[in-house]
Amino acid sequence: MPHKYIRKQSTPERGSCSPRAFSDAVDAVKNGDMGINEAAKAFGIPKTTFKRRLKANNTDKNDRSGPDCSLGSNAELKIVNHIKKLQKAGFAPTRTEVKIMAFNLAQRMGIPNKFNQKEGKAGQKWLELFLKRRPEISIRKSENTSIARALEMSRETVGNYFSDLERIMTEHNFYDKPGHIFNTDETGLQLNTRAGQVLAEKGSKCVPSVSPGEKGETISVIACCSAEGIFLPPYCIFKGKNGKGDWLEGMRPGSKIRMSEKSAYVNSDIFLEWLRTHFLPRKPPGKTLLI
After folding, report:
1. DSSP class per residue in the chain
2. For residues 59 and 53, is the Cβ–Cβ distance under 8 A?
3. Global pTM?
4. Which domains does the chain have, with CATH numbers?
5. Dihedral angle at the C-alpha atoms of 61, 64, 65, 69, nearest 10 degrees?
6. How far is CA 47 from CA 6, 11, 29, 33, 257, in A?
7. Which pLDDT tens digits describe the chain residue by residue (291 residues)?
8. Closest alpha carbon to 270 in 229, 228, 238
């Protein structure tokens, strides 16, 4: 007669203990009521799991089974909060900076780890598991903001700006005159497009794509629009001495090509010239608000 083997459960299965049981076991050890082995047995927790998580300071009551946390939930929460703080200040850390951050925190808190001591940072595997454990943190593409603009983005500065704007619009009755409210800004445009995917002979090591310039030329465009949705013709700044008439082909009537010898960036002289020769002749009669 064949014998059916039944596996003996001498120890609790992985993930079988509830968060409450683990929490009670931690409290029992910290209060000195039980030893580690005694608490693990009493609350049905695998000894190795209980010892490892206590050693790593990973005593989060809501913790779940899964990849081992190298730093512990408390330490990782410090990293999460620091990342959020840096992001609000406009200095969101890179992946490498977060790895270094984790290494330094482990050293400072005396947390045992397997990080790369020579490079002084956590590994890529740790970062991947960290992002899985902390879904509130994700990898995003940042947008460059100049230091000067960042300094102007304080709560006090922005609040003062809108207070002044509201006062001016009320004093001059601009709320009922959307055609007299204009917003202007400059933007940079890359003339050369990036090389895309093409069809070529299999095995080719290099497939160049001919373009007007290898690095590409950047121009500036001053754009302006009223609150009614009326756009002024674009004002384009090119670097160089002499422009070409055919550059205006296909552009809106009234568009302007302005050459600048030093650079294609908008400076105070170019902006005042735009204001005097391009904006004022096209604005409606009466007072106008230019933002």
Report:
1. -PPPP-----SPPTT-S-HHHHHHHHHHHHTTSS-HHHHHHHTT--HHHHHHHHHTT---TT--SSSPPSS-HHHHHHHHHHHHHHHHTT----HHHHHHHHHHHHHHHT-----BTTTTB--HHHHHHHHHH-TT----------HHHHHTTSHHHHHHHHHHHHHHHHHTTGGG-GGGEEEEEEEEEESSPPP------TT-S------S-SS--EEEEEEEEETTSPBPPPEEEEESS---GGGGTTSPTT-EEEEESS-SS--HHHHHHHIIIIIGGGSPSS--EE-
2. yes
3. 0.46
4. 12-66 (1.10.10), 73-133 (no CATH), 177-192+216-291 (no CATH)
5. -80
6. 23, 9, 13, 17, 76
7. 555 555 554 455 555 556 666 777 787 788 777 788 888 887 778 888 888 878 766 555 444 444 445 687 788 888 988 888 887 766 788 888 889 999 999 999 888 888 888 899 998 988 888 888 788 888 877 666 666 666 666 778 888 889 999 999 999 999 999 999 999 999 888 776 665 554 444 454 554 545 555 456 788 899 999 999 999 999 998 888 887 777 788 888 988 888 887 888 888 888 999 999 999 999 999 999 998
8. 238
Per the listing, tokens 């983005």 go with 153
